[in-house]
Amino acid sequence: MSFLYKIIAASLVLLSLVACSNDDGSSADIVRRFDENGKVFSPTELGGESQFLTTMRPEKVRFVSLDQNLDAIDSFEVSMDSSWDGNKLSPSFRFHAKLREYQWPYLKMVAVFPSDVKKQKMEFAQYVRLTDNNQSLRPNLFSALAAGRIQKMDFDKAQAQALMELGRVFRQDLSNIDKESFSAWDENVKGGTRLRGMLPYVYCRHEISDSLFYSDFKELRDNFAETGKIKASFLVRAADAFLSTFERVFEDKSATLCHGISRDSIMGLRSMDYTFFEDAYGIVFPWPSGSNDTIQIMDKSSAYFKRHFVMDNIWRLKSLLEEEVGLCSYHFLKDSLIYYKGDYYHCEIYSNIWHKETDRKVIQDHLFGE
């Protein structure tokens, strides 16, 4: 901590020496503590709502009181209670802590979740500076990723600085993260979607499993704490995992022929985020694009090295079979049949999937005519 910061911190003690009686007239005194701006931060009630994915059901919130050096003084826990809003399709998770006194205006707020790993919990800590109103606290993944960075700088400067640096990583303005609810995605970006609130979950591969998500979270948090950046290799592995969830589906005369299928599909993680893949693989999706245009992934660290994206009504990844025998496109106006390694494969109209053809009549009709 800087010398100036210590002076400011010491002044909080002097400003706090004001006592008052309880509302019920009892003789016990409550010490009112003021911050450097003259606002009462203690005693105070705490309240708020989880901003994590609604599919993540928190068990509780742990509050750790901190001193001027952000060292722990004491702690307590409150439960997270679910409630339903008639306008929402999923529950909200809220918490409340009764009126308490705090010596310093600094807390660590830890949201605790169950995990798919037996006997393991997932804990996401972030820092809170108490004000004269602490009823709208927002546990969230962005702030938890920034927490390690905050520990390395003076608190008042660190929080804004860490969120600015993290915003550069995610290409988002995170300055209002404590006030704004970040939507999962933005529509119609290069014909797809642009992930917003979902983006840190994709970076941490939440769509795959809790164990992988929590491991990635801790690794990214610690790496960001040291450098204020995130290694490029983290982004490539996240892109590979996200890309692995996309499947081509045959829907007759439908424009939706490829979408993500994972446990986060219910949260809207179904469409390609082309900007995300551009950042990860160092490629550029031209927009607008011509039918059957292709782009090759040339990042050697990717599991998809030398694979191609193709414009097939939307940008999608070519299948391994398509890389060998050619494209099966939604835009083809007639059926196609090919012979490859001892089997026939059929590309139907309005499909983009080569499927193995075993119907002898279909094969004969293609080879010799109906």
Strands, helices and their partners?
Blueprint lengths: L2 H13 L2 E4 L7 E6 L5 E3 L1 E6 L10 E7 L5 E8 L1 E3 L8 E9 L5 E9 L6 E9 L11 H10 L4 H16 L14 E5 L2 E4 L3 H5 L6 H18 L4 H13 L1 E3 L9 E3 L13 H8 L12 E3 L11 E5 L1 E4 L2 H6 L10 E5 L2 E5 L7 E3 L2 H9 L2
Antiparallel strand pairs: 1-2, 2-3, 4-8, 5-6, 5-9, 7-8, 9-10, 11-12, 13-14, 15-16, 16-17, 18-19, 19-20
Helix pairs in contact: 2-3, 2-5, 6-7
Q: Strand sequence of the main sheet, in spatial order?
A: 6-5-9-10
Assess the beta-strand content as a share of residues: 25-35%
Order of helices and strands: HEEEEEEEEEEHHEEHHHEEHEEEHEEEH
Task: Tell me roughly what share of residues is in helical segments.
Answer: 25-40%
Q: Characteristics of this structure?
A:
four-stranded antiparallel sheet; 28% strand; 370 residues; 20 strands; alpha+beta; elongated; 9 helices; disordered N terminus; 26% helix; three-stranded antiparallel sheet
What does this protein look like?
This protein is α+β, with helices and mostly antiparallel strands. 26% of the residues lie in helices and 28% in strands. The chain contains 9 helices and 20 strands. A hairpin with an 8-residue loop joins strand 7 (81-83) and strand 8. Helix 2 (141-150) packs across helix 3 (155-170). The model is unreliable at 1-8 and 20-27 (pLDDT under 50).
